[in-house]
Specification:
5% strand, 16 helices, 3 strands, 293 residues, mainly alpha, 3-stranded parallel β-sheet, single chain
Amino acid sequence: MGKTHLLNAIAIDLKKNFSNMKIVFMSAERFMYQFIKAIRLKDTIKFKDQFRSIDVLIIDDIQFIGGKDSTQEEFFHTFNDLIDQGKQIIISSNKSPVELSDLDEKLRSRLGGGLVVDFLPMNFKLRMDILIKKIGQIEISFPHEVLEFLATKIVKNVRELEGALNRILAHHELTGKEITVENSEDLLSDLLLKNKMNLTIDCIQETVSSFFNLKIFDMISSRRSINVARPRQIAMYLCKNLTSFSYPEIGKAFGGKDHTTVMHAVKKISSLCEQDLNLKKQIHDLKKLIFSL
């Protein structure tokens, strides 16, 4: 929905107009890592002092500290201290405060006490405006009916919309084939199917487990044998390619794995697919199974 982009714009504007203002902008995940590092180094006093001396705290994706009790507790105290000092806090999440069930009740209450702004999905006109602006930056004749096709079919977020446009442009440059609605529909078949479904990580985990005759527990376990680790990597790869979940969100669903583990899995499977035809067929068959559910 462009939350991170908007937070960046706010931070840049504040710095431009209030150069002496101390602004900290980071993800909730980064806040958690720095807090854990401070505990490990027995340097929590310095950590607390750093965050309590700022003027504006901007935190992206607060939902990532859900279930992390000690991090939530520290953030709650930081939040209260800054508010008591009359400082500003800007927070984003993928849900409204009342829906963040993994967060402690007192923190949810605190978040809900501020100005809550809901991001509504893009309408058709905005999607068209984005596509037209993107096309205007390149020297290529792009059929208007294809732009309308994209604006009608890709409705979830800007990233997917731009990704679909880039895929069509890349295919045209590589093959020289004409850009048409029919060609675009074939080229974006996986993305179009994804937009018709509300795919969940659980659904993908169950499908992959069944495909490889594994238990669903194997998807979230720490077992490293190849017959378990490879299907788990495939499931992570499919989650990243077929859903809009982030690396940290996927890692959390796979037994609390670090986001770097998910990134490694995605890169590994992508690389192997270029060499291993059998694996490529397995991925293709799994996608068909998932889309047929």
